[in-house]
Specification:
Elements (H helix, E strand, L loop, with lengths): L21 H10 L4 H8 L3 H8 L2 H15 L1 H15 L4
Helix pairs in contact: 1-2, 1-4, 2-3
Length: about 90
């Protein structure tokens, strides 16, 4: 089992199958809140490559889908409802 290293300079280790592409691993890291720099270091690719991937609609959709799976649709719905009630002055 891999671990996520807490040291700022050390790249995280993902417990993913070697069959998972670097691009897919980058999507996971970004969905977990990582930056292009962190993902690049972890995957041994230039961070500018990860930034370029982030510009493509398909990759962005993958990251968004992974984030939704991590927090769950209920959490997103609750945030949306809370924001709507705040805009309405919900007193």
């Amino acid at each position: 089992m891999g671990n996520v290293n807490a040291h700022a300079d050390a790249p995280p280790v993902l417990p993913l199958s070697p069959k998972v592409s670097r691009k897919e691993r980058a999507a996971v890291l970004l969905a977990l809140g990582g930056t292009s720099t962190i993902a690049g270091r972890a995957l041994d690719v230039d961070p500018s490559t990860v930034r370029r991937w982030r510009q493509t609609p398909g990759f962005r959709a993958t990251v968004t889908d992974l984030r939704l799976r991590l927090v769950g649709d209920d959490a997103v719905g609750a945030l949306t409802a809370e924001t709507a009630s705040e805009k309405g002055g919900g007193r």
